[in-house]
Every structure is written in C-alpha cells, then in structure tokens.
Design a protein that fits this description.
Helix content: 55-70%
Number of domains: 2
Distance between the termini: 46 Å
Oligomer: single chain
Strand content: under 5%
Number of strands: 2
Strand order of the largest sheet: 1-2
Shape: globular
Order of helices and strands: HHHHHHHHHHEEHH
Structural class: mainly alpha
Length: 279
C-alpha cells in the first residue's frame, strides 16, 4: 500500500484501521500495535488489534485517543472518522440511517462518491422506481406535469426533476432522438451497506401508499389479501422462497403483457405475530 488510506473513502472504520496498520507497517518496519497504543496513550498494547478484530468497540473515551494515534491531517477527517465509528456501531435502524446520510453529506463536501448518493436516493424513494417503470407505458411522456398527474400528484415537480436526474446519473435512462426519456440497458449494482438501509425507507413508503390505496382506491382496481398461518421456524426458508418465486412470476407475467397503461405496486409481507419462546 503506497498511499496513506483516505478515511472518507471508507464505510467501515475497522477496515480503515486495518489498512492504516498495513500502510504504517510497510513504511516503517518497526511499527507495531504496541507502538500505536503508546502514541495514543492507551495502556493496553493489544487494544488496537482487538478493535480491528472486532472483539471490542471504540467508545467516547477511546475515540480521542485513536484520533491522536492516527493523527489525521484535518478536522474534517476526524469528524468523518468519529461519525463512521458511530454509524458502524449503532444498532438502532433509524439512528443508523440518519448517520449514513450524514456520512454522505460529509463525502459530498469532499467531492467524493456522488454515485453512492444517487444509489441511495434511487432505492430509498419509491417514486424513482415508479418513474423508471412508468417509461414502459405506451403513452409515457417526459413532461413533468404529465408524470405528476399520473402519480396522483403525490410528489412535487422538483422531486420529479430530481428523480430524472438520479436515473440519468445511474445510467438507467437516456434520451432518444426526439429528446424523450427512455429506459436504457444500464444495470444498477449497489453495495450491500447502501441497499440494506435504503430498502427500509422504500418498504416503509410503500406500506404507507398501500394504506392510502386501501382508503382511496376503488375495490375493483386493487387486491388486498392476507392469511394468518402457523409456521415452524425450520420451514421459514421454504415459505420465503415460495414468496420470492411468486414475486418473480408476477414480475415476468406483467413484463410479458403486450399492452401496459398503468403502474401497479405488489407488496408482500410475511412476518411473525408471536414472540419466540426463546426470547
């Protein structure tokens, strides 16, 4: 490793510390875990390795010591490191999601990773997928007002323009010879870290839209169904695979229809109503 690792390019502080150690070891052969701990004024010589291995977490007390041991070049890098530690160690989903967005903003200040911002935006906001799929309709128009009306004016024109920009940046759509937006052959590859957090936003939004549909849409235009069933834990993988197969079959069925004039959302939820006896 020829260059000192740049903390703002990481999503895992332990991986950064690992690369930091490798870099220091390659540039200074006598460098060791103990040498780092001495500089950081940490009494335990094995603390650094335990943090890297994941057997211990950094704390509000130990973080300043690690900042001293690493000796970042700027306050902004220190801020990023501290936020990254909080993000990696946070268990609450809502707080973790908020910290993720803070990290994205800190990265954008450095002019880094705009692609990750667009990836998160695409997956987190339901209307991005809706607008993308909408381009497969026979009467689709690239006009913002047309899109707004077809989406029942649930999102602002500003959000529509932002969505079109996100889809363009990700290579999912392009303009044809007439200047109209069409789907491209681009594929979206998203890091697990981004996908996990964004999908939670997406499902929450879709559940809210389902509740709205239950109250507002005519029974003839929608289908709500459900079943409450007893299941053995060892059979959960079978049930989940069946659901995945059904979703795939429905997607293929809809895609192969010759005529398409509306966009529909298929939500499938399968979750426990009872508490495990082991909890």
């Amino acid at each position: 490793m020829e260059l000192l690792p740049n903390i703002t390019q990481y999503w895992d502080y332990r991986q950064f510390l690992t690369d930091f150690y490798v870099y220091k070891k390659e540039t200074k052969r006598e460098f060791s875990y103990k040498m780092f701990c001495n500089k950081a004024e940490i009494s335990s010589p094995s603390h650094f390795k335990m943090i890297i291995d994941g057997s211990r977490n950094l704390t509000a007390k130990s973080i300043p010591k690690y900042l001293k041991g690493i000796d970042f070049e700027s306050k902004s890098e220190e801020e990023f490191f501290k936020t990254l530690v909080d993000y990696n160690q946070e268990k609450d989903v809502e707080k973790k999601s908020a910290l993720f967005e803070v990290l994205l903003k800190l990265k954008s200040k450095k002019g880094l990773c705009p692609l990750e911002f667009y990836q998160f935006d695409f997956l987190a906001n339901w209307y991005n997928v809706a607008i993308y799929v909408m381009m497969d309709l026979e009467d689709f128009e690239s006009d913002v007002n047309w899109i707004s009306n077809r989406l029942k004016k649930r999102i602002s024109k500003e959000h529509i323009l932002s969505s079109l920009n996100t889809l363009s940046k990700l290579g999912l759509i392009k303009k044809d010879e007439q200047g109209n937006f069409v789907q491209s052959n681009g594929a979206l590859s998203t890091p697990d870290e981004i996908r996990t957090l964004a999908v939670r936003h997406y499902h929450r939004d879709m559940l809210q839209l389902a509740m709205t549909s239950l109250d507002e849409d005519d029974l003839k235009t929608r289908e709500f169904n459900g079943a409450t069933v007893p299941v053995a834990k060892e059979n959960l993988p079978i049930m989940k695979e069946k659901i995945r197969q059904f979703r795939k079959e429905m997607n293929e069925l809809a895609t192969n229809f010759d005529s398409k004039d509306e966009i529909y959302q298929l939500n499938i939820q399968f979750f426990p109503l009872t508490k495990s006896r082991m909890q």
